[in-house]
Write a structure and sequence with these properties.
Layout lengths: L5 H19 L3 H9 L7 H8 L3 H4 L7 H14 L10 H19 L4 H5 L11 H20 L1
Length: 149
């Protein structure tokens, strides 16, 4: 029997990310990044520390959604060749990140935290933080599966 794809495992990874946020106080970037970190061979503690400033739309500024930022970190780890080959993998990494952003935006109309939360908007909440985490994890799993195929 073939191993389950990440897309098939996404519901469990979403649950894990949501638990990290609700039960352990992780911000959205940390929850997504740490739930997905083992899938790309990176230490969850390092991701936790590196993503701390990306919460609440980058340090509480309500700019880019933290869930997206956490996913970008994971996708970058997946595709980058690192300092051994600087610049050689940027195009590949950017392509993965563009897919994440495009898919997220297609589902939620924006990637901006304050717009998603409905801050200062007459239309109200477009997507809750747990919903953004769910979307970022699910989309990332699809992208990782496609990348590895």
């Amino acid at each position: 029997m073939a191993a389950a794809t990440l897309t098939e495992q996404a519901p469990q990874l979403v649950e894990q990310a949501l638990a990290l946020r609700s039960e352990h106080g992780y911000n959205c970037a940390q929850a997504v990044g740490c739930a997905l970190a083992p899938l790309v061979g990176v230490d969850a503690d390092a991701v936790y520390r590196l993503s701390e400033g990306f919460g609440s739309g980058m340090g509480g500024t309500t700019e880019t959604c933290g869930a997206i930022s956490g996913a970008v970190m994971v996708l970058s780890q997946l595709a980058s060749a690192g300092t051994a080959e600087p610049g050689t993998t940027k195009g590949k990494t950017y392509k993965l990140v563009r897919r994440l952003v495009d898919d997220f935006r297609a589902q939620n109309t924006t990637t901006i935290c304050r717009e998603l939360k409905g801050v200062g908007s007459e239309t109200g909440v477009l997507r809750t933080c747990p919903g953004c985490i769910e979307d970022a994890v699910r989309i990332s799993c699809e992208i990782i599966d496609a990348y590895r195929a």
